[in-house]
Design goal:
Blueprint (H helix, E strand, L loop, with lengths): L2 E5 L2 E4 L4 E8 L8 E6 L5 E7 L5 E3 L7 E6 L4 E6 L8 E7 L10 E6 L1
Parallel strand pairs: 2-10
Antiparallel strand pairs: 1-3, 3-8, 4-5, 4-9, 5-6, 7-8, 9-10
Length: 114
């Protein structure tokens, strides 16, 4: 069974940076795309960014130019580098395997203060 474990969240002031990590176990990692989602309390879970198995990336308009998604296939890990953080980025962040049925992980909390 695939297990997804997110880490790297924390508290940061507006304008600061964080790097999130997600490690996938029991998965032939290199053949799947990976995505990041986020969810604030009382709101829907929104897509943030995707990186394909070939390394192509796409971002939601709200984070474009500030966030960078990357992957290290040797470590079965996908990253989300978040720069110029804004209070509206505050949410729990989750990773997801593209086109593969897996349960959501526990997520990692990102809180950006004004």
């Amino acid at each position: 069974q695939v297990r997804l474990v997110e880490s790297g969240g924390g508290l940061v002031q507006a304008g600061g940076s964080l790097r999130l990590s997600c490690t996938a176990s029991e998965l032939v990692f290199n053949i799947y795309g990976m995505a990041w989602y986020r969810q604030a309390p009382g709101k829907q879970r929104d897509w943030v960014a995707t990186i394909t198995s070939g390394g192509s990336t796409i971002y939601s308009n709200s984070v474009k130019g500030r966030f960078t998604i990357s992957r290290d296939n040797a470590k079965n890990t996908v990253y989300l580098q978040m720069n110029s953080l804004k209070p509206e980025d505050t949410a729990s962040y989750y990773c997801k395997v593209v086109q593969y049925p897996t349960s959501w992980g526990q997520g990692t909390q990102v809180t950006v203060s004004s």
